[in-house]
Structure formats: C-alpha cells, structure tokens
TrEMBL record:
<dbReference type="GO" id="GO:0098796">
    <property type="term" value="C:membrane protein complex"/>
</dbReference>
<dbReference type="InterPro" id="IPR027417">
    <property type="entry name" value="P-loop_NTPase"/>
</dbReference>
<dbReference type="InterPro" id="IPR003593">
    <property type="entry name" value="AAA+_ATPase"/>
</dbReference>
<dbReference type="InterPro" id="IPR017911">
    <property type="entry name" value="MacB-like_ATP-bd"/>
</dbReference>
<keyword id="KW-0813">Transport</keyword>
<dbReference type="GO" id="GO:0005524">
    <property type="term" value="F:ATP binding"/>
</dbReference>
<dbReference type="GO" id="GO:0016887">
    <property type="term" value="F:ATP hydrolysis activity"/>
</dbReference>
<feature type="domain" description="ABC transporter">
    <location>
        <begin position="2"/>
        <end position="239"/>
    </location>
</feature>
<dbReference type="GO" id="GO:0022857">
    <property type="term" value="F:transmembrane transporter activity"/>
</dbReference>
<dbReference type="InterPro" id="IPR003439">
    <property type="entry name" value="ABC_transporter-like_ATP-bd"/>
</dbReference>
<keyword id="KW-0547">Nucleotide-binding</keyword>
<keyword id="KW-0067">ATP-binding</keyword>
<protein>
    <submittedName>
        <fullName>Putative ABC transport system ATP-binding protein</fullName>
    </submittedName>
</protein>
<dbReference type="GO" id="GO:0005886">
    <property type="term" value="C:plasma membrane"/>
</dbReference>
<dbReference type="InterPro" id="IPR017871">
    <property type="entry name" value="ABC_transporter-like_CS"/>
</dbReference>
<dbReference type="InterPro" id="IPR015854">
    <property type="entry name" value="ABC_transpr_LolD-like"/>
</dbReference>
<dbReference type="Pfam" id="PF00005">
    <property type="entry name" value="ABC_tran"/>
</dbReference>
C-alpha cells in the first residue's frame, strides 16, 4: 500500500538529513506506529509520505501511485483523495464550524452538495459529535476537536491515515477514545494507518512499530513478537542512557 525507497530529505541549513535513505513497505490494512526521539525525523517522514513535503531523493508510492515526479496540483489531488491526515494540534479552520470543517476536503474536491451533507451526517454520528454540528473549534474540548479532525480526515474515504501524535495533546481517557476510533477503522475498514507517537501504550495498539533515530529506521518490530514491549523499553532506556 505504501512503498518508500531510498527516501532522503535535508532541510536548508540542516547539518544532516532529517530523513536519511529510508526504505519502508507497509501492506494494505497494516497499523504501524513510528517512535523515536524528538528531532529524529518522524514528522518529516510522515509529511513526505503524505505529499505535504518533497524529498531530495527517493521514491514514494501510495496505493500504487507514485507521488514523486507529480506536479504540485496533481499531488494535492491524490493526497486529498487517498490520504487522511491527523495532526497533534488538530489544525481545524477556526472560522468554520464543525460541519464545515468536516466538509472542507469534499468541498475543495467539488463533491455534490447532497453527497457532502450525507457524508458529514454519517461522520458526525460515527464520531459522536451530535449536537456540536454548529460549534466552532474554540468552543470544543481537545478530544472533541481531535474527533472533528478525524472526521475531516475520513471525509474523502481515504485508504490511508497518517497521524502525527494524534493523542499528543489529550489526556489518558481522550487518548484512549481516539485510539479506539483508529483501531476500529483499522479492524473494520482495513484502513492502512501510520501513526507517530511518543507514548509506549499508544504504540502498543499498532501491529508493527518502527523505531526511528537520526533519520533512519533502527528497528522494525512486529507486534506478534512477544517481546515488543521489552524491545520498546530497551530502546527508550538506550536513548536515555
Ligand atoms: N521546516 C523545517 N526547517 C528546517 N529544519 C527542520 C524543519 N522541520 C524539521 N526540521 C529539522 O529536521 C529534523 C527532524 O525534525 P522532525 O520534525 O521530523 O522530527 P520529529 O521526529 O517529528 O520530532 P518531534 O518528536 O519533536 O516531533 C530536526 O532536526 C528538525 O530540527
Ligand atoms: Mg514531530
């Protein structure tokens, strides 16, 4: 579903590449967590995969479509249709209400009005946002804002969800709710999910964990390995040493 080969990105003034010759293959329906120290390149990686940023080298394909070599316009289109993006700070449009925020990608894609209304109603229901349709982001709790952001990410029925610390600003209970939603999408709709997180218990919900360090993948652990928790703890201990 997602193939990354020889991916590298160095920011202007960066001493070394933020992402350094990375190869990743993610199968359709896989739920992958990405962990690693601050500054190790996790967000950069996600932005590259999501087509929000352009690599210096390497290839990325999502659902059989190559993102490199595309015009900006075409990339935007593919990104909107295939990929749902969830950010730590929600990134809702403050001047739009809940319904309008959720509808935004569909409106940008010029979907028919009735189709938009139907989908928005469906998502309001699925994400338990009933009664909040006309509220503005500033009037919502963090958990509610993140649920609106998830609804917006799902509006175009993407096959891939990229989530950058989706629970980073939420307390335990709200984090758990957001994780429940992601796990359910993964289980029931076979969505492919890549989620960056700093939280061990959050990463534990994924089937596979990529440990990132200095722009490279240090290890790639499958949840079926009984020692996942041990491996993660060792990795964190090593980083703190
Ligand atoms: N827009 C930018 N311009 C220049 N350098 C950047 C930019 N964004 C990130 N960097 C640098 O690239 C490296 C990787 O950053 P990135 O944001 O990908 O890390 P991260 O693993 O997501 O960290 P965190 O866990 O703190 O979110 C860091 O050294 C950072 O300072
Ligand atoms: Mg980051």
């Amino acid at each position: 579903m997602i193939t990354v080969e020889g991916l590298s990105k160095r920011y202007p003034l960066g001493e070394r590449p933020a992402v350094d010759k990375v190869d990743i293959h993610v199968r359709q329906g896989e739920f992958v967590a990405v962990m690693g120290p601050s500054g190790s390149g996790k967000s950069t990686l996600l932005n590259l995969i999501g087509g929000l940023d352009v690599p210096d080298h390497g290839k990325i394909s999502v659902d059989g479509l190559s993102l490199h070599n595309l015009s900006e316009k075409r990339r935007t289109l593919i990104r909107r249709r295939k990929i749902g993006y969830i950010f730590q700070n929600y990134q809702l449009l403050s001047e739009l209400n809940v319904k309008e925020n959720i509808a935004f990608p569909m409106a940008m894609d010029r979907c028919p009005r009735e189709e938009i209304q139907m989908r928005v109603q469906q998502l309001i229901h699925a994400l338990d946002l009933k009664g909040k349709e006309n509220s503005f982001p500033a009037e919502l709790s963090g958990g509610q804002q993140q649920r609106v952001a998830i609804a917006r990410a799902l509006a175009m029925q993407p096959r891939v969800i990229l989530a950058d610390e989706p629970t980073g600003n939420l307390d335990r209970r709200r984090s758990y709710e957001v994780l429940e939603i992601l796990s359910r999408l993964h289980r029931e709709e076979r969505l492919t999910i890549i989620m960056v997180t700093h939280d061990l218990s959050v990463a534990g919900c994924a089937e596979r964990v990529l440990l990132f360090k200095d722009g490279r993948i240090e290890s790639d652990i499958r949840q079926t390995e009984v020692n996942l928790q041990r491996a993660l703890e060792d990795f964190l201990a090593e980083l703190q040493a």
